[in-house]
Task: structure prediction
Amino acid sequence: MIQAQNLAEAFRALYGMDGRVYRAPGRINLIGEHTDYNVGFVMPAAIDLYTWVAIAPRSDRIIRICSRNFSETVEFTLDKLYNSPRSHWSDYPRAVAAVLEQNGYKLSGANLLVQSDLPIGSGLSSSAALEVAAAYALLDISGQSIDRVKLALLCQRAENDFVGMRCGVMDQFIACCGRAGVALMLDCRSLDYALLPLPDDVKLVVCNTMIKHELAASEYNARRAECDEAVRILAKTRPDIRALRDVTEDELERRSASLPETVYKRARHVISENARVVKARAALERSDLETLGVLMEASHTSLRCDYEVSCRELDLMVELARQVDGAYGCRMTGGGFGGCTVNLVQAGKAAFFIQEVAARYENEVGVAPEIYPCSPAEGAARII
Ligand code: GLA
Result:
């Protein structure tokens, strides 16, 4: 655990005291994109890339956080709760501290040192990993215990209410509840989940396009509003529709004329994607990776054409992966507008796959992609 020890040493050098070390993982999503806030189905896995937090309590109510990635330090007091986002990395720990305090979790002041292996803002859920790692660490040193699902919901609320990103629960949930070796099929309405072991001879390969589009947050909230609009119209004649989760593909087709074209396309993505997740679970349960791969590619097409959250570089990365031997399936993962693709690759061919895709992408785009071979990992934990 060299990384944890390094961080503990850096913490001691910075603050002159010993600290504990915690971490929370990033995630990929195998399938089920933009379905979580429509209370549908998702299939994420936590990955072995983490946000790390070294921490020690203070005797006052000050939270002091130094980021190793940004070489910056931020300080705030728990007595004056956070109220407006600054579009800064510190929004996330400030927001979780505020939500925890508001919900009756009395926190101790603390010194923190934060470091992330995750590429920031690249669709691997670096924000949720920071929220969960900081919240978990703050609670633990304050002697407060919390249920993992509750922790996920509070971190989601922090992002919704304080940071202003109307995200669903997937990222925080998997950062809290991820398990080694498995993907989770999560029902975002009931929060019930099933553990789906991934076969040993398959690797998760994450390809980072290195592109980030500024539009991501505003377009995300716009997609949510379009889904709400679809529900509002569809519920006029069937009031028990509370979310797109409650509509079948057949019903949407029958009622398509009542929806504006764009709203119809958004709904078609969400409803068909939910159906794909259900089929993907069955495929994974019978180790049918070919079928899972076909479903992942259909998901990408639907995100590109109907939900319109892909971009040229993501489409190219998926296209190149399809051309290389060894991949069962590939698609964009996360919110979109840049960031990463997830690829399900035969373990024995992963090295060749990585080398080929990297070379072809760099050749076409002129930017070297980062490619991470990953394994499904455990959720948030104390390491030292
Ligand atoms: C982001 C959000 C998630 C989810 C995905 C898209 O990662 O944080 O809640 O909506 O986008 O599936």
The longest strand covers residues 44-57. Residues 33-34, 36-37, 125, 167-168, 170-171, 334-335 surround alpha-D-galactopyranose (CB under 6 Å). The chain has a mean pLDDT of 97. Residues 202-373 form a domain with the Alpha-Beta Plaits fold (CATH 3.30.70.890).
